[in-house]
Amino acid sequence: MTLVLHGINVSPPVRAVMMVLAALNLPYDFKEVNIMKGEQLSPEFLKMNPTHTVPVLQDGDFFIGNSHAIAMYLAEKAGDNQLYPNDLQTRAALHQRLFFDDATLYAAFKTLTTPIFAEGHAEVPAKQRKAVEDTLDILGKLIQEKGWLVGNSRTIADICTCATVSTILALEPTLNVPQNVSQWFKQCEQLPGYAKDNKPGVDVISNMFAMKKKANAS
């Protein structure tokens, strides 16, 4: 049975799953969820995911939310021990990076968007910019000698984190970014699915961000 991904491509977590699916070469159908119309609050959607967030992966009659949980599920399903290494300590380090992306980097993304989309600022305040730069500094300390987040090659941690970081850098391209983070991100731009599945959504949200800034300034 074909996998179904429910989501919207402006969402970094949704794009993360799309890139994981591309890296694993897994076919799937995409079902767009109209967040603006509140489709994520419909009874049908809440049956799939009571937390009313995207993405949601449907595998037959099984549903799972949260991009990182989905990424782990898909890698296990595909039996890919490179994208999701089965060594205990390597996998623990990978989980730590995933949780950093989920709890800290995604919060940094919202630190940029909230002043513009919710508070009416024309620019992101300096304090918030500095907080995001501090988070990127921490990311730099997590990158390994070989240039990836875990071990010697790409993993689902790199893919998921790339979706978040690509959005942050597109929204505020003048942020101070550690050199090794820039080098890591350059590698990530070559990931399977980056151009097809990630870049279009990044472009949409960055254009929305720029337009909202302009509107707030007028």
Automatic annotation (TrEMBL):
Q: Which residues form the GST N-terminal domain?
A: 1-82
InterPro entries assigned to the protein according to its UniProt record, in alphabetical order: Glutathione-S-Trfase_C-like, Glutathione-S-Trfase_C_sf, Glutathione_S-Trfase, Glutathione_S-Trfase_N, GST_C, Thioredoxin-like_sf
According to the lineage, what is the superkingdom? Eukaryota
Name a single GO biological process: glutathione metabolic process
Q: Which SUPFAM superfamilies match?
A: GST C-terminal domain-like, Thioredoxin-like
Listed Pfam families: GST_C, GST_N_3
**GST C-terminal domain: residues covered:** 87-215
The GO terms describing molecular function are:
glutathione transferase activity
| Assembly information from the UniProt record | Homodimer.
Q: Which PANTHER family match?
A: GLUTATHIONE S TRANSFERASE D10, ISOFORM A-RELATED (PTHR43969)
Q: Please give the name of this protein.
A: Glutathione S-transferase 1-like
